[in-house]
Each structure stands twice: as C-alpha cells, then as structure tokens.
Write a structure and sequence with these properties.
Layout (H helix, E strand, L loop, with lengths): L1 E5 L2 H18 L3 E5 L6 H14 L6 E5 L1 E3 L10 H8 L11 E2 L8 H14 L5 E4 L21 E4 L2 H7 L12 E4 L2 H5 L4 E5 L5 H9 L17 E6 L7
Parallel strand pairs: 1-10, 2-3, 2-6, 3-5, 6-9, 9-10
Antiparallel strand pairs: 4-8, 7-8
Bound molecules: fructose -6-phosphate (F6R).
Length: about 240
C-alpha cells in the first residue's frame, strides 16, 4: 500500500481528482467504482470543475457504486442514487445508461445482488475503485465479520455505522437498518484502489489498517493483500501512524 500524505481535505480531494482525471483521459473507456458519504464529495466537486474548465469527458466511462440503502427508492433524497446525481452525474457528460447503483427496492434482493455482480463482470471488472473507510474498518458496507469471499450481498448495518450516517437523516430512527453492498471479493477484484481519508475521525481506523493483522474483524485490512492500493490521507487522519 502506498500512502500519500496531504495537508487537508481540499488537498486530498485535489490529489484524488488528478489521479481519476489522469486515468479517464488516458483510457478510451474505463470502469470506475464509486463511493458515497462525506469523504468523496470534494473529489466529485473537483471532477465537475475540471469537466467544465478542461472538458474532460466521461462519455467512455462506466461507473459502479459500492452500495445503496435497502428500502430507499431512487427518489429518496437520502438514497445513494440521489447522492450520485446531485454530487456528480448530473454535472458531467456521463450517460445515465453507463451508471450503475444497486437497487435497494428490488422485489427480489438476492436476485439483485447476483445481477449487480454479473454486470460488473460483464463490464470487464473495475479499473479504479474509490473507497472511504468507516471507523470500524468497513469498506463499502462490509461490516466487521463479513467474509472476505463475499460478492454483492445484503448487510445489517451496525449501530455505529447508522449513528455515523444519521447526520444526513432527520433522526437515527430513519437511518435504514440494511444495505446492499459490493462484497469484499468484488472490491478486491478491482485492478486499482484509491482509499481516501480525512480528519481526526479516521485516525483510529487508519492506525488499525496499518498495524493490525489481516482479519475479517477489520474488513479494510484485506487491502494489504491487494497489489495496487494507494491511500490519500491528510495529516489529521495520519496522526497516529
Ligand atoms: C459509502 C461507503 C462507506 C463510506 C464510509 C465512510 O459508499 O461505502 O464505506 O465510505 O462509511 O463514510 P464517510 O466518508 O461519510 O466518512
């Protein structure tokens, strides 16, 4: 794992954007794995600005998002579908047909998991996966204890994850209890992974990631076994390392 230390959130976002833009510009077509949450919002802002100023085109880009809440429709302002359209897709020239987000309202969720996994495979796999990290080491919504062999599956969110995400809802009660997420093995199949982390709240997680053994108790630890992972983190997040 390569670590790039930057001074703050803005620099983390800029550095990550340079990397993504470089890839998008160098490949005629590529598949990007995307995350939601607070961490990549700045990155998406930088991509939008670059698209407007420098004309980087996303016509040859396919995207696959990591996860979606179960029970939230595409129209729900807290769905990751809405997040992606508000924070990125509606501001760049990507074709909606090329964007993929698992459905949290599919009638048969097991079938939806298989469909999503197959679509990623048919697209030839993910060239570059963007990740954030949860305080408990989750990547995607793979909570501690998730099998490293898992493909896309349904998860029960832990109380700490629901509490961390309650800031987007009007109450903790409203935060869904389940989500559909790419599995650890889906994420590990990506050819390259960029993990972003900013701020004090990520200090413990990054320390554990660097120091703990590889274990399903701390899902992100598996990244140590991936051949091409870059962590872009700011000084605050790296303080304990
Ligand atoms: C989001 C996701 C999660 C987040 C993680 C950190 O699609 O898969 O793993 O990356 O919960 O969230 P933030 O960035 O809000 O601290």
């Amino acid at each position: 794992m390569r670590i790039i230390e930057v001074s703050d959130y803005k620099q983390m976002s800029e550095k990550a954007a340079q990397h993504v833009i470089g890839k998008v510009r160098s490949l005629d077509c590529m598949t990007l794995g995307l995350a939601t949450g607070g961490t990549p919002q700045g990155l998406y802002g930088e991509l939008i600005e670059d698209h407007h100023v420098n004309g980087t085109s996303y016509k040859g880009v396919k995207t696959f998002n990591l996860d979606e809440y179960i029970g939230l429709s595409k129209k729900d302002p807290n769905s990751y579908f809405q997040y992606m359209y508000t924070n990125l897709f509606s501001h760049i020239d990507i074709s909606p047909d090329n964007t993929h987000i698992p459905s949290g309202t599919a009638a048969d969720l097991g079938e939806e998991c298989d469909r999503y996994e197959n679509m990623m495979e048919e697209a030839g796999g993910i060239d570059l996966q963007i990740l954030g990290i949860g305080a408990n080491g989750h990547i995607g919504f793979n909570e501690p204890g998730t099998s490293f062999q898992s493909g896309t599956h349904i998860v029960e969110l832990t109380p700490s994850t629901r509490e961390a995400n309650a800031r987007y809802f009007s109450s903790l009660e409203e935060v869904p209890r389940k989500a559909i997420t790419m599995g650890i093995s889906s994420i590990m199949k990506s050819r390259e992974i960029l993990l972003l982390a900013s701020g004090k709240s990520k200090q413990e997680a990054l320390k554990k990631l660097m120091e703990n053994e590889v274990s399903e108790h701390f899902p992100a630890s598996i990244l140590k076994e991936h051949p091409n992972v870059t962590i872009i983190a700011d000084t605050d997040a790296l303080k304990l390392i």
